[in-house]
Each structure stands twice: as structure tokens, then as C-alpha cells.
Q: What sequence folds into this?
């Protein structure tokens, strides 16, 4: 599973039941995946080449049959995938391999929370993909995240995480709240403050043993993700202590914890999954990849009880997303670069979206039927292709920093402590800042 996006302890999605109204199946081609050593990159006497792709969790290429398809189109090339379950284990290994200049795969997956650090400190060890891809094909802010100050592009964008809100219509109805997605959107149109007001309405008539949201830390990440400035400024200096978006997210999270609007469950853990099965949480902040996690954890018994609407407020938000980079130490840099270009082209991104729900970062995919007409049967046929494409086009360009992931994870942990242990906001913030300062130097 992949979902080690930027919250500590996450595992990524398994599969999203995306459908265009015809079928929920993906491409019926057999994927090629292997746990082989990522240094096993070779060509034989007949000119046959093996390319390795190292990634974390689930990028969806196997599920969409893309490696097998690439072999059909290029019979002399076989692609093997080396997957690490969690990104938090994958990234330190990648840094070690880059430092050693060995053990690297031909293609390496890169999480958005790490891309800035690599662009600033390891750019010379990655091929410049601007020579291969047309960066104008991607939503503008996506490729800028992987671009160095001198214009080198070290990663081609795979997916993004445009924000929505997933809600349990059955629980909303029992609490006397509207269930139509347009009506729900109107209730939270003013922003995340309106979202908490809706939570207070829910609490008044909430079914016993249920909560308005799963996690205040998830809401925090959604709030911060809707702002251009988060943890660093344009000069690369950390500003998280004075960041308006961090303050807003923190204050709203503290309020949610204090008012008992949250069940206080760390996302993707067993208690969180059990809560979804038992329908004890009414809403979940929903970047595009989250719907699959909900449908898998909640199970078939809850199909049709959930829906999706636009995120609170008028500002679009992105939470998550990855890249594919090509280390210059590889034996087949040119061939690997061509593979990356193909994997991140509109048709292949649409195929991955259909297979596992990773929303494309390549704008050309948005008009393809598998994206444009996509609906989620599990979520009352929510028109996710339309919802996410509209949001993706208006997401602000975020200022990234080298330790975004560390800062975000540390703050999320302390928000969990407010929820689960009753830690006061002041003590939790002090603990967070001390840990962050120690980690980032």
C-alpha cells in the first residue's frame, strides 16, 4: 500500500473503485512487479534491457497493467518494480543510495514532501527531465515543485491530491443535516470555520457513539494545504511558527478537539478502519486518493452511504502527490527517461486513475473519458472527475521547503495528542516546536 503521504503512520491506498459507468475494472493487462534488488539493471547480449522502478506503496502501474503494456510496445525492454511499503522507510534508503552513488533504480519515486530537499541538495544526481517532457502539460504548480532555481526538472509529476469532503449521508440524515452534495457544499461555503459550525449542528442530534470527523490532524492538513505559504518562505527560511495557515489550522484543530467533534483517530490505523466499518464518523477531509481508503475500510456494507462534495471555502487545496525521477548513476538513463515520459503521459495517468484513483497531474488527462466522466459508485456516483479537475486547475502554487514532511508530521502527532490524551494546546504546540527545531536544525 502507498499512502505515506505526509502524515505519520500512513500506508497508501490499495484500490479505488473508479468507474465511468461501465465497469470498475482496470486495464486487463497483467502488471509486472518484483521485489528484486533495485541495482539489478542490465542488458543482455541480444540488447534486451531491464529497467527497475523503485517506489513506495502503490503508484498504480501494476494495477493498470502499464509495465506489461510498455513491454508490448517496446519488446526489448522489461520493467521490474521494487516497492517499499511505507515512504518513511523508502526515503532514508534513497538518500543513502544517492550519497553512495550506487544501489539506485533506473527510476525512483519521490514524494512531494521530499521534492524540495532533493531539488536543493541532490539535483546534480538526477537527469534533467525538461529535455524529455513538456512541462506545460502539467498543472503549472506541479512541475514547479520539481524545478531547480536554474530550471532543471528532476521529477515528472505522477498524481496530485485535490481536496474534497467525504461525508456519511446516513449519519447526516439521522442528525437532521442535508444530504444532497450541493446543499452540503452551501453549508460549508464560508470555509473550515463553517465546517466546524456544521459539526456543532451535527453534534446536537448525532446518533449515539458517533463523531463529526475522524481526525483533527486530517482537518489541519487540509486547512494548511489550501494556502500558498505553509512552512517556509520563498527564501527557504522556516516560517511555521508565524505562518497564518499553520495558526489557522492549529486553532481550528484545537477547537475541534475541545468541542469533542473528532473521534481522535490517527488515519489508516486499525481503529480508524474499524470506525469506518461501524459508521461512527460522519466526515473525512478527502484529497482525491482518500476515497479509496474509505471504500476499502468501510467495506461493501457501507456502499451508497457515503457521498463527496467540494471542500470547505472558495480556495482550492492540494494534499499529496508524487514524482518520478531518473538518477544519473543509472546504466540506461535515456531509456529510463523515455519510460518516465510515457508513464506520466495523459493516457497512462488516466489508466492509473481508473485503476486506483490517483488523480492525474497531467492536464491532458482531464478531457479523457476515464477521467472526465468518472464517477464513484461507492459514493452515490459522485462525479469525481469533474470535482477534482475543477479544483486542480485553481490550486495555488505552494512554497515548498526541504523539511515540509517532517514539520507536518510532527505537528500532526501533537494534534493527535490533543485529541487522544487531552494535552493542552499550549503544551502540544511547545512539544511540536521543540521537536521540529531539533529535527530541522
A:
Amino acid at each position: 500500500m502507498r499512502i505515506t503521504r505526509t502524515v505519520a503512520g500512513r500506508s497508501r491506498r490499495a484500490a479505488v473503485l473508479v468507474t465511468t459507468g461501465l465497469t470498475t475494472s482496470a486495464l486487463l493487462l497483467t502488471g509486472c512487479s518484483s521485489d528484486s534488488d533495485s541495482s539489478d539493471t542490465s542488458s543482455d547480449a541480444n540488447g534486451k534491457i531491464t529497467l527497475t522502478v523503485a517506489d513506495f506503496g502503490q503508484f498504480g502501474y501494476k494495477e493498470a497493467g502499464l509495465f506489461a503494456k510498455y513491454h508490448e510496445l517496446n519488446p526489448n525492454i522489461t520493467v521490474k518494480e521494487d516497492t517499499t511499503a511505507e515512504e518513511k522507510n523508502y526515503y532514508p534508503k534513497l538518500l543513502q543510495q544517492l550519497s553512495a552513488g550506487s544501489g539506485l533504480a533506473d527510476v525512483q519515486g519521490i514524494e512531494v514532501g521530499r521534492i524540495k530537499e532533493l531539488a536543493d541538495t541532490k539535483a546534480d544526481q538526477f537527469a534533467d527531465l525538461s529535455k524529455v517532457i513538456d512541462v506545460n502539460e502539467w498543472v503549472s504548480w506541479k512541475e514547479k515543485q520539481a524545478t531547480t532555481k536554474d530550471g532543471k526538472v528532476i521529477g515528472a509529476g505522477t498524481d496530485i491530491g485535490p481536496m474534497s469532503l467525504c461525508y456519511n449521508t446516513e449519519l447526516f440524515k439521522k442528525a437532521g443535516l442535508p444530504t444532497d452534495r450541493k446543499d452540503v457544499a452551501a453549508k460549508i461555503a464560508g470555509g473550515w470555520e463553517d465546517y466546524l459550525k456544521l459539526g456543532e449542528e451535527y453534534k446536537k442530534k448525532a446518533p449515539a457513539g458517533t463523531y463529526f470527523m475522524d481526525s483533527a490532524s486530517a482537518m489541519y492538513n487540509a486547512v494548511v494545504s489550501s494556502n500558498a505559504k505553509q512552512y517556509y518562505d520563498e527564501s527557504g527560511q522556516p516560517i511555521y511558527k508565524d505562518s497564518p495557515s499553520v495558526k489557522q489550522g492549529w486553532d481550528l484543530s484545537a477547537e475541534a478537539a475541545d468541542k469533542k467533534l473528532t473521534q481522535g483517530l490517527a488515519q489508516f490505523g486499525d481503529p480508524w478502519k474499524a470506525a469506518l466499518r461501524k459508521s461512527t464518523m460522519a466526515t473525512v477531509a478527502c484529497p482525491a486518493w482518500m476515497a479509496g481508503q474509505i471504500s476499502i475500510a468501510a467495506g461493501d456494507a457501507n456502499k451508497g452511504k457515503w457521498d463527496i462534495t467540494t471542500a470547505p471555502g472558495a480556495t482550492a487545496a492540494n494534499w499529496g502527490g508524487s514524482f518520478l525521477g531518473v538518477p544519473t548513476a543509472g546504466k540506461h538513463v535515456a531509456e529510463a527517461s523515455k519510460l518516465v515520459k510515457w508513464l506520466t503521459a495523459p493516457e497512462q495517468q488516466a489508466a492509473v486513475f481508473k485503476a486506483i484513483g490517483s488523480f492525474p497531474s497531467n492536464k491532458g488527462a482531464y478531457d479523457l473519458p476515464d477521467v472526465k466522466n468518472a464517477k464513484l459508485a461507492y459514493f452515490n456516483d459522485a462525479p469525481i472527475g469533474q470535482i477534482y479537475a475543477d479544483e486542480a486547475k485553481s490550486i495555488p502554487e505552494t512554497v515548498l521547503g526541504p523539511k515540509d514532511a517532517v514539520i507536518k508530521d510532527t505537528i500532526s502527532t501533537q494534534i493527535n495528542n490533543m485529541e487522544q490524551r487531552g494535552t493542552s494546546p499550549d503544551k502540544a504546540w511547545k512539544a511540536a516546536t521543540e521537536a521540529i527545531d531539533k529535527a530541522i536544525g
The first strand starts at residue 42 and ends at 43.
